[in-house]
Amino acid sequence: MRVLPAAPSIEGLTAVVTGGSRGLGLLMARQLLRRDCDVVLLARDAAELDRAVAKLGRPGGGAVRGVVCDVRDGPAVQQRLAEIARDNGRLDIVIANAGIIQVGPAEALGVEGFRDALDSIFHGALNTAFAALPHLRRSPAGGRLALVGSVGGLLAVPHLLPYSCAKSAVAALAEGLHAEEAAYGVTVTGVHPGLMRTGSHLHARFGGDRRREYAWFQALAGAPVLSMNAERAAERIVSAVQRRRPRIVLTPVAKLGVVAHGVAPVLTTRLVSAVGRVLPRDGGPGTAEGYRVEAEEQPPARRFRRVLGVLNERAAGRFNQRG
């Protein structure tokens, strides 16, 4: 068995996590705190940030605080990161994690759905990267930037097309910046997780036949074989950033899918097309967040879905997905 060399210490470094108030972002912040970083969470919702800080706060080790910021607003991101670098005297690690998930047929989500995904996911990552890089280049420890993409950005997934398109752009951005920033001593890590049990189904937006779209997404996102324990995923991501790895793909299923698509793209496209044929086709216009779709269901169906996705439901409660 190959033994990895000890990871370089990141104790005392200043880290920022966008989308850090819940789910994967919250868990990555926890991992950074365990490594004695000072952590700043960026998110849009002040109340959610307060709850996240309360969940993460602990005596000793690194400090944690929350800052309200919408990553879609480029000037605001620049200002917030400049303030953090000034207040902490440095900025060493930035993880761009903020984004949205939309589930449904492309036609139901519409052109506006694609614009929303690109604005939140890609432009959010782009704004964060460009605001962070001048500070990361000045980091005495050598800056680290991580852009959270998805296996959906490496292999397009039906009924997640806006998400896949935006994450694909993030993957290209991470790869290109890794090459360009090497000259400045900054490493850029492209992070591509598969399904994780984060409870994200509650904040995903569902279009088309919302109840059926919610049902399949909630079930698969909580399936033990297909999805990954989110705490384990966060630990591996932060370790990859700490070790300055250029790319990490998470979950065995995701790795298999990416390799298969690279070796036999026609075959994998046909297999994915077969999956697309069994997904819901009908439904009305507009989208609704998962917790609203869940609330519209009758109690027996709601209880059945929670039992089916029990691991994801537990994750939602633990990782600040339920207000």
Automatic annotation (TrEMBL):
Keyword tRNA-binding applies: no
Record keywords, A-Z: Oxidoreductase
Transmembrane segments: none
Superkingdom, natural source: Bacteria
SUPFAM superfamilies reported in the protein's UniProt record: NAD(P)-binding Rossmann-fold domains (SSF51735)
InterPro entries found in the cross-reference section: NAD(P)-bd_dom_sf, Sc_DH/Rdtase_CS, SDR_fam
One Pfam family from the record: adh_short
Xref: PANTHER family: DEHYDROGENASE/REDUCTASE SDR FAMILY MEMBER 7B (PTHR44196), DEHYDROGENASE_REDUCTASE SDR FAMILY MEMBER 7B (PTHR44196:SF1)
Family stated for the protein in its record: Belongs to the short-chain dehydrogenases/reductases (SDR) family.
Record-given protein name: SDR family NAD(P)-dependent oxidoreductase
Organism name: Streptomyces bugieae
Taxonomic path: Bacteria, Bacillati, Actinomycetota, Actinomycetes, Kitasatosporales
